[in-house]
Design a protein that fits this description.
Blueprint (H helix, E strand, L loop, with lengths): L1 H12 L10 H11 L7 H9 L4 H13 L7 E4 L2 E5 L20 H13 L4 E6 L7 E2 L10 E2 L1 H16 L4 E5 L5 H9 L4 E7 L3 H7 L9 H13 L4 E6 L6 H19 L5 E3 L20 H14 L3 E4 L5 H11 L3 E3 L27 H10 L3 E3 L4 H6 L4
Parallel strand pairs: 1-11, 1-12, 2-3, 3-6, 6-7, 7-8, 8-9, 9-10, 10-11
Antiparallel strand pairs: 4-5
Length: 395
């Protein structure tokens, strides 16, 4: 399981920054090798990312990413999140969700989902917190081996699939707590196409500092192993990311790459989607994370590395300004997933949400945003599905 590799991979990544960067000629060889079927081994991965401390190598990476073409390089796949619960028993220090959150009724959820369908969306992400009413601890539940009754959460997925199929079909992605294999199989049966989970940080020490003991999320190993369980349960796609700004982003990037490489070797499938969330807001000033702040320059450079290293599609999100996302697209090309306008609180599409948002986003007029991207030469796609995602992968 992935968690059994964590210590080895993080130990490897901790070497980044401890020795001189490689020369540009060697850097170019590693960039070219990263695109071959076997990719980079652990030593090469560390050498490449460690090499980015050199300014000449950074320019080489940026230029290489700008030249490199991805499949469907002019297409932008739109993916909005639909939050159905924000009541949460986890107490993550960097998140605004807590036990005072809310959840949508089934009727409210159906109305919100239909509102997205009416806008033309056919690929939608269903998002929830660790709501104890939706993920009810079974009698066998233990922190080390978590078992939930997920009947409450399943009703939302069944409703979504029914409405989506009635509209001609599409793709459902989940962004919910990690689950055991039996629960994942139920989600698959209910119509889930992609299981998404942000790992937050790979660093075991930093993970413990940011997550309270005895909450479900305190078990980092369970969170990591869910990717393999999702694939074993028959779910076609998985999506992963680290939250940039919780720890050293270069070291996180190395571990994410090594995990993706491991999944491809053992499961014949890695991450179909690579998320790009960046920590924003007041918590960036906390002593726990202040040293790991990710500037716009480093964020853009991380995006360049993502485009080179991963086969999965990058997901550019509304945590970033529309202008910044357009700049990234113009520089590196599309072949990405993008969220243009969204609500990060339960509700917000059919009518304004009355709940607290998980994090602030940049909202914009949808039709104008689409027109601007089309003026830039991109094809903006509302109607896409699991097959579309597969066609956009590098390998």
């Amino acid at each position: 399981m992935l968690s059994e590799r964590l210590r080895k991979f993080t130990k490897t990544a901790e070497r980044i920054g401890l020795y001189p960067p490689i020369l540009s000629g060697e850097m170019l060889k590693l960039l070219e090798k990263s695109g071959k079927p076997d990719g980079l081994d652990e030593e090469e991965c560390v050498a490449l990312i460690n090499g980015t401390f050199d300014r000449n190598n950074r320019k080489l990476v940026l230029d290489y990413a700008a030249r490199a073409k991805r499949p469907r390089d002019s297409k932008i796949l739109l993916l909005p999140p639909l939050y159905f619960a924000s009541h949460c028993e986890n107490t993550c220090l960097y998140c605004d969700f807590n036990d005072e959150g809310t959840r949508l009724t089934r009727a409210e959820f159906a109305g919100e989902f239909q509102a997205l369908l009416d806008l033309g969306y056919r690929s939608i992400e269903l998002v929830s917190s660790q709501d104890p009413e939706l993920y009810f601890k079974s009698p066998e539940y233990k922190l080390e081996n978590q078992r939930f009754n997920i009947d409450g959460a399943l009703e939302y997925f069944k409703t979504a699939r029914r409405l989506l199929d009635a509209a001609g079909g599409g793709m459902l992605t989940s962004n919910i707590p990690p689950l055991d294999r039996a629960s994942l199989e139920k989600l698959k049966f209910s119509g889930l196409d992609c299981f998404l989970l942000w790992v937050e940080t790979f660093s075991p020490r930093q993970y413990v500092r940011l997550h309270a003991k005895n909450t479900p999320k305190a078990n980092q190993a369970f969170r990591l192993d869910v990717f393999e369980l999702a694939l074993e349960s028959g779910i076609e796609h998985i999506a992963g990311a680290f939250l940039k700004g919780l720890y050293d982003w270069r070291k996180e990037e190395a571990v994410l790459y090594l995990f993706d490489r491991h999944l491809r070797k053992t499961m014949s499938k890695g991450f179909s989607i690579i998320g790009t969330p960046r920590l924003k807001g007041a918590f960036t000033e906390s002593a726990l994370v202040k040293d790991y702040f990710v500037s716009d320059e480093d964020f853009e450079f991380n995006i360049a590395l993502d485009r080179i290293l991963f086969d999965g599609l990058l997901w550019l999100q509304t945590r970033e300004t529309p202008e910044f996302n357009r700049r990234l697209l113009k520089r590196f090309g599309a072949g990405v997933i993008l969220t243009l306008d969204c609500s990060t609180a339960p509700g917000g599409y059919k009518s304004p949400s009355k709940s607290k948002a998980q994090f602030p986003v940049y909202r914009q007029d949808l039709s104008r945003a689409v027109a601007a991207l089309e003026d830039d030469g991109f094809e903006v796609i509302f109607d896409w599905n699991s097959r579309t995602l597969s066609d956009c992968l590098k390998k």
